[in-house]
């Protein structure tokens, strides 16, 4: 048994699986006492037993459903009643609902998404942050997402809650300047957890296990950022690039790209096949045209009218392409200027 208790306590929501489970393992290894909150009491008890046997970890299990508006106060009351000082709060719990918002998703489930992902997170932060500020010491880790800064079609409500988490966290972090309390947002992309299954989206392109991140790797990046007091961390270099583009490219373009990842695998594969077939057909047609032209170039002499007509069509196509490129360029330049102005205003 590896025992190295550091006498500090961390409260973690969403600890029974995925990124939350991996974060719990890191805290246990570093000698923290654990307060684990969740609905799956059996899984949490198994975790507690494993960590006690391996690290001598002391664990408190609080069996609560954060979809219940009363849960945050009850959790705070239980830890306060036991005299437990929460040195670190990890708001990891969250889930999504897949489908078209207007016609396919369930309203009650989406209201629960908002309650768990945003309202309970805010409520728990309010309760425990007061104590941290009074002690002038503490850390909070929020589970944001790549979609905190990118529109998320087909999971619109989930994406909106993640945007709230990023904005809320950055705001209170600013309010905490001058204290020894930090707030860090972990922003992963698609991760190989049961998230997509719970959301009813296990068959979409973006949920491909071969393309999703390892939750242990994501947790490690979040843990290190939390301990160093960073404001946020984007897990994975590809996700870092996508988040960077999220601050530059126009939202409609970002939404369209995200929508592709939210397409069912079979539909995405069919679209790819159609695109490939069209490309092959166009290629054959072009090659055929070149071959016919090469055979008949000596026998066919275009008239002055034909030359003028072809020249007109070529110029028109060129102008259309130029206008399209100019529109995209203007949109990108406008987004860049807005981002630049925002940064300059912040620094000023």
UniProtKB/TrEMBL annotation:
SUPFAM superfamilies: NAD(P)-binding Rossmann-fold domains. One of its GO terms (molecular function) is oxidoreductase activity. It comes from the Bacteria. GO terms for cellular component: membrane. InterPro entries: NAD(P)-bd_dom_sf, Sc_DH/Rdtase_CS, SDR_fam. PROSITE patterns: ADH_SHORT. CDD domains: SDR_c (cd05233). Coiled coil: none annotated. Transmembrane segments: none annotated. Keywords: Oxidoreductase. Belongs to the short-chain dehydrogenases/reductases (SDR) family. This is Short-chain dehydrogenase. It comes from Spirosoma endophyticum.
